[in-house]
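Fig. S4 source data, part A: sequence.
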Amino acid sequence: MKPQQNTLHDCVRASLEAFFRDLDGTDPANLHDMLVKAVEKPLLEVVMEQAQHNQSRAAQWLGLNRNTLRKKLVEHQLL
C-alpha cells in the first residue's frame, strides 16, 4: 500500500498553522506578500527545470506572459 501523500494544499495549510503557532499571539505583517514570495521562487525553479529553461514554454504552463515570467525570474535572481 502506498503511503498517504499530503497535497500541496495540506502542506501550505500545515506550514501556515505552524507559522501562526510560532508567532505566539503576535500579529503577522504582510502575510500575503511573504507567502507569495516564499512559493513563487520554488515554483519558478521547478517549472523552468521541467520546461528545460524554455521561457516561452514555462510562461505558457504558468499562464503568464513571457515578459512577465522574465521579470519574475530576474526578481528572484534566477537569470
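Fig. S4 source data, part B ends here. Residues 8-75 form a domain with the Arc Repressor Mutant, subunit A fold (CATH 1.10.10.60).
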